[in-house]
Amino acid sequence: MNDARFIAADWGSSQLRLYLCDGSRVLDECSGPGIATARGGDHAGILTAAIAPWRQAHGTLPLRMAGMVGSRNGWIEVPYLECPADAAALRASLQRFHAQGLDVAIVPGLACTNPQGAPDVMRGEETQVFGALALQPALAEGRRVLALPGTHCKWVHLQDGRIQRFQTSFSGELFELLRRHSQLVVAAHDKPHDQAYDAEAFGFGLRRAQAAASLGHVLFEARSRQLREAMPAAAATDFLSGLVIGSDVRGALGLLGWQADGLEIGLVGAPTLCVRYAQALARQGYATASLDGAQCALAGLRTLTID
Predict the structure, then answer these.
(1) For residues 97 and 74, what is the distance between their CA atoms, to the nearest angstrom?
(2) For the chain, what is the domain count?
(3) Range of the domain at 102
(4) pTM, rounded to two decimals
(5) d(Cα 298, Cα 291) in Å, to the nearest integer?
(6) Last residue within a domain, chosen from 44, 72, 107
(7) Taking residues 229-257, what's their average pLDDT?
């Protein structure tokens, strides 16, 4: 076995992403079912089947994992680590075990009391955060704010490379629920959210979110503007996206207060989604810098789990 080689796994609710790594190089990658699909199933069997060709070619390699694999519904529940927390604390709290000949380590999630005084948790995003710091070391200096848009957007306050606390937004899942299961954009249920978007309609949604008393008071406009102003269904979907993201950004900046004042905000996530958040933050006067979430997850697994 080549000691520089290992298998990195980002196992989230919806998808398993596996990477065959040699140091910082990715030699191969593959995917599999998410934890939600595998719930109650044979997690070890799913993994060994997915990586069987790599084991045959390279022998048994260390398996380093992050995400919902360590949740209550995952393979093995790994206790949350309390914030403030840095990379060293996460490395010291790895859950290590052996299964079917595999040397496994799982990164723990983080817990905090958020800016609203409520309990908050993350699993997987902490690995992306410390991957971002590894890729951009300047992010570990002084006071920083990172936003990680996705199913549950995380707004993270960093101080000198330590995660102090964070705030979770339900924005991504809320948008999908409204898009697929409400009557707001019923004619556009099959429009992929990651395709080229109507920037004008999205911007209009941002403006309406900024002016509204609350998100609940403007959501129905995605329907009424189709009926009364002939807004196309595809445009209504991007208008709805603007409403949800604009509300998320406005609310998060209000909660973060001084923590975000005047700072460039880092965005870590899918590039197409980061573009939308960058546009929303620009309307609020904030500069942004974006990093690819998948690259950050992989860099974080290297940083947190490889000795």
Answers:
(1) 15
(2) 2
(3) 1-107
(4) 0.94
(5) 12
(6) 107
(7) 95
